[in-house]
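Predict structure. Input: UDP-N-acetylglucosamine kinase, 179 residues.
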Amino acid sequence: MLLIGGRAGVGKTTVGWEVSALLRAAAVPHAVIDGDFMGQVHPAPEGDPHRSEITETNLAAVWANFARRGYRRLVYTNTVSVLPEETGMFQRAMGTGVRIVRVLLTASDATARERLTRRELGSELERELEGSARKARLLDQRVPAETVRVVTDGRAVVDIAGEVVAATGWTGQHSTTGP
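Output follows.
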């Protein structure tokens, strides 16, 4: 599985969709899940203030549907998905033998601010800006050493996605039973 993480405004969702486009062009079977949607409920479920249990339950259910249909590769985007403490959720949902490739997308504060200002048209811009800077520091300090870091500042999405796809090794494997 491919985990694409990074601060808000770094381009995770956009890069995830472009990764999917490149994989489709290479005839590589895969599924895509935007992890933000797996726990998007309000209020948080009782006893699950961080929405981690509902996220895991939803991921397991959605992945089971994909797996039943023969898919073996997953592109998963979420800010903190690349952190080591998230590994257990993916192993429980997909099996302990799952091969995980972690990619941390990075962007400068100025780039993230510019992107978020374009994206966040509602009332949450300031909250997103503050959270983005905080999570950028957290991710930089805590991702595992083997995490591939990809700079997004001033780069075309197709180039970023190409670097991400190369990190997976998937384009040389075209069966549904790959990693």
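Confidence is low (pLDDT under 50) at residues 173-179.
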